[in-house]
């Protein structure tokens, strides 16, 4: 896929979830933080965004720990997002 | 059953309500067998908690009835049911958008037309039975607790296919959504001592509810907040929110009892509630109306006969069990009971030969393709995001928690103007693959149908009932709470065709028990 297509797909995964909190957090992250990530962290974010809400939300609200170290770094960044 | 009828302000159909209540224990046990992690009592039974409006003996005293899995019952349910789907090898078409229903000349539904986002391909899902579980349309309002996906796609498809939408004027609002973001702040915050304040720092609920103050019922608090904002005592540069103050509470209490709320406030309002109050507004939460169905989950025409091949359950459907206002916990019960009954109806209708695979009409895709072609060729048209924002602001201002005669009339005119803009939306990106701009424009086609249905039905209903509260239908001796049973004890049916309104009687006869007669709704 082209970059535009990949980014559109990722935006859709970020902003059409089953919880408003997730739409807002992931959408804001995509706009502000994602462009600043290195390739490893960017790939980890794509993997996280592909997870179902039931897997991802516990990681974001801290009720479950991330098994993968890079994913854990990205989740820490996600938890610090402030939606404007 | 009485609590649901009373909650509905007597607009719920009593056959569907009895059916739902009778099925409730069965579906709870079934969920338990599916692995739902219900909370337990010490004896190992399913724990049941008290809940607002849940009473025993026809409203005599509170009762513990609500089965729950901590504070994440809906999520746990989703998980349990998803696992059942995995087990049944259900095929999910992820990253597809359904665009339109396919109906033949007899009115039978023969499937849907859908768009695959990855390829841009438009495909017919030719089906013997079509069940909608597409959720509500809370995104028609500017301030909504609903996720972005709740754009009323099922309602838009049904309306375009000539099916009426029932009781769309009834929307439940939650008093405390974070201003701007919409994320819900639970009632527990006021329970712990949170106070609502206006721009003069006044605890204004003392004027509206001298006894209960900030703990008055949802609708009372919401209307008080809107009155403060409308009378110029809102906060912020646009004076469009009030403040929820917990700065007087001990930080240790906040950290212990409300940790999630502190996090939500920091993340979504940029405010640490230990140090400063949270900006809040009444926020759209739940849609009581929808596609008309019977208690078997079959979609019904205006005369009550089933539309062959078409079924619906959950927030998209109007069975009608919620009537003018939904009782807390009944949203989950509704989708369990009617999800199951619609599935059972599909099996019965297949077995009896009522439905089956019929040939598609020659022109089945014409309307959908014309809509897509219009979008692809539109020039000098309206911007999708700006039009959606205008729609949402208009709904919030003219058809929100507290409704005014003149504002509703103006709102109808405005929404019909916005409809013209929606008909000429333009997208700059014309590509086929992963064109999210196109999908957002198609979502707007659905939002406008729901917005029209809501505004026009609300303008027409000249009484207050449940969640539909009009300034010009106040509480009087003749019409307690502004409810006018003589003229308005009936369901609204909005038709897309010329925005025609029809009405049908409320079903007052339950399946086996005595009818619950009309009575003033007071708690």
Automatic annotation (TrEMBL), chain A:
Superkingdom to which the source organism belongs: Bacteria
Source organism phylogeny: Bacteria, Pseudomonadati, Pseudomonadota, Betaproteobacteria, Candidatus Accumulibacter
Coiled-coil stretches: none
Location(s), subcellular: Cytoplasm
Gene3D superfamilies attached to this UniProt entry: Flavinator of succinate dehydrogenase (1.10.150.250)
An annotated GO cellular component: cytoplasm
Residue stretches spanning the membrane: none
Protein's name in the database: FAD assembly factor SdhE
One Pfam family cited in the UniProt record for this chain: Sdh5
UniProt organism field: Candidatus Accumulibacter phosphatis
């Amino acid at each position: 896929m082209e970059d535009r297509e990949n980014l559109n797909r990722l935006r859709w995964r970020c902003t059409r979830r089953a919880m408003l909190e997730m739409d807002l957090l992931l959408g804001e992250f995509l706009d502000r933080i994602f462009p600043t990530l290195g390739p490893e962290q960017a790939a980890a974010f794509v993997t996280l965004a592909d997870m179902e809400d039931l897997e991802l939300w516990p990681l974001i609200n801290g009720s479950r720990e991330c098994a993968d170290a890079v994913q854990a770094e990205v989740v820490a960044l996600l938890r610090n997002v402030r939606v404007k | 059953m009485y609590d649901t009828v009373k909650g509905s302000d007597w607009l719920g159909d009593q056959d569907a309500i009895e059916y739902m209540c009778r099925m409730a224990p069965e579906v709870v046990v079934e969920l338990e067998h599916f692995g739902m992690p219900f909370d337990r009592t010490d004896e190992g039974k399913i724990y049941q908690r008290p809940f607002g409006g849940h009473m025993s003996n026809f409203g005599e005293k509170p009762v513990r009835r609500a089965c729950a899995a901590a504070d994440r019952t809906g999520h746990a349910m989703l998980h349990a049911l998803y696992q059942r789907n995995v087990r049944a090898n259900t095929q999910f078409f992820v990253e597809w958008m359904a665009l339109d229903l396919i109906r033949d000349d007899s009115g039978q539904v023969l499937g849907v037309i859908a768009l695959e986002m990855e390829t841009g391909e438009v495909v017919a899902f030719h089906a013997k039975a079509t069940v909608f579980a597409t959720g509500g349309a809370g995104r028609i309002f500017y301030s909504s607790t609903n996720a972005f996906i709740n754009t009323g796609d099922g309602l838009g498809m049904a309306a375009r296919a000539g099916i009426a939408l029932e009781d769309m004027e009834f929307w439940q609002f939650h008093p405390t959504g974070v201003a701007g973001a919409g994320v819900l702040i639970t009632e527990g915050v006021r329970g712990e001592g949170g106070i609502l304040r206006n721009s003069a720092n006044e605890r204004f609920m003392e004027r509206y509810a001298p006894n209960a103050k900030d703990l008055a019922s949802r609708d009372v608090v919401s209307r008080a907040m809107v009155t403060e904002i409308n009378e110029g005592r809102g906060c912020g540069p646009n004076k469009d929110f009030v403040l929820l103050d917990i700065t007087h509470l001990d930080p240790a209490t906040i950290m212990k009892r409300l940790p999630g709320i502190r996090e939500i406030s920091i993340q979504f309002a940029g405010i640490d509630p230990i140090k400063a109050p949270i900006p809040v507004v009444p926020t759209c939460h739940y849609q009581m109306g929808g596609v008309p169905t019977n208690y078997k989950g079959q979609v019904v025409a205006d005369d009550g006969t089933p539309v062959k091949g078409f079924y619906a359950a959950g927030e998209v459907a109007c069975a009608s069990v919620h009537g003018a206002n939904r009782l807390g916990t009944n949203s989950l019960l509704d989708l369990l009971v009617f999800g199951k009954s619609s599935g059972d109806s599909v099996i019965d209708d297949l077995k009896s030969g009522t439905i089956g695979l019929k040939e598609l009409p020659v022109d089945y895709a014409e309307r959908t393709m014309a809509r897509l072609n219009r979008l692809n060729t539109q020039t000098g048209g309206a911007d999708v995001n700006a039009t959606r924002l205008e729609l949402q602001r208009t709904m919030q201002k003219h058809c929100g928690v507290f409704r005014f005669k003149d504002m509703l009339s103006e709102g109808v005119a405005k929404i019909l103007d916005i409809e013209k803009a929606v008909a000429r939306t333009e997208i700059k990106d014309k590509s086929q693959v992963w064109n999210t701009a196109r999908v957002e424009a198609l979502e707007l086609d659905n939002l406008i149908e729901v917005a029209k249905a809501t505004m026009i039905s609300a303008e027409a209903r000249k009484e207050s009932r449940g969640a539909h509260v009009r300034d010009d239908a106040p509480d009087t001796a003749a019409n307690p709470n502004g409810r006018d049973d003589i003229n308005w004890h009936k369901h609204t049916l909005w038709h897309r065709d010329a925005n025609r309104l029809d009405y049908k009687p409320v079903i007052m006869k339950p399946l086996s028990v005595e009818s619950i007669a009309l009575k003033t709704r007071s708690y």
